[in-house]
């Protein structure tokens, strides 16, 4: 992997397959993803200083 760090991270992320991860890691990743989405949805009602993303 060469090039800008964002390109390297993109390549690395694109190569990750959920079925190849340890089940505990996959479960934690899904839980964190759901948490992030939940925070974004809830924040749209609380943040008066910025427009909602969703």
Feature tags:
0% strand, mainly alpha, 63% helix, flat, 54 residues, 2 helices
Contiguous helical run count: 2
User: For the CA atoms, what is the radius of gyration?
Assistant: 16 Å
Tally of DSSP β-strands: 0
Overall 3D shape: flat
Please mark out the parts with pLDDT under 50 across 5 or more consecutive residues, or reply none.
none
Gap from first CA to last CA: 34 Å
| Strand coverage percent | under 5%
Q: How does the helix and strand content classify structurally?
A: mainly alpha
Task: Tell me roughly what share of residues is in helical segments.
Answer: 55-70%
Task: Provide the succession of SSEs.
Answer: HH
Describe the main β-sheet briefly.
Answer: none
Task: Tell me, rounded to a whole number, the average pLDDT.
Answer: 84
Care to describe what's here?
63% of the residues lie in helices and 0% in strands. It is an all-alpha fold and 54 residues long. It has a domain at 19-54. The chain is flat. The model has no long low-confidence stretch (mean pLDDT 84).
SSE arrangement:
Elements: H1 5-14, H2 23-46
Short description:
63% of the residues lie in helices and 0% in strands. With 54 residues, the protein is an all-alpha fold. The chain has a domain at 19-54.
């Amino acid at each position: 992997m060469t090039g800008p760090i964002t390109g390297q991270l993109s390549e690395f992320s694109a190569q990750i397959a959920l079925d190849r991860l340890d089940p505990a890691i996959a479960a934690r990743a899904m839980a964190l993803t759901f948490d992030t989405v939940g925070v974004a949805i809830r924040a749209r009602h609380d943040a008066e200083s910025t427009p909602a993303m969703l």
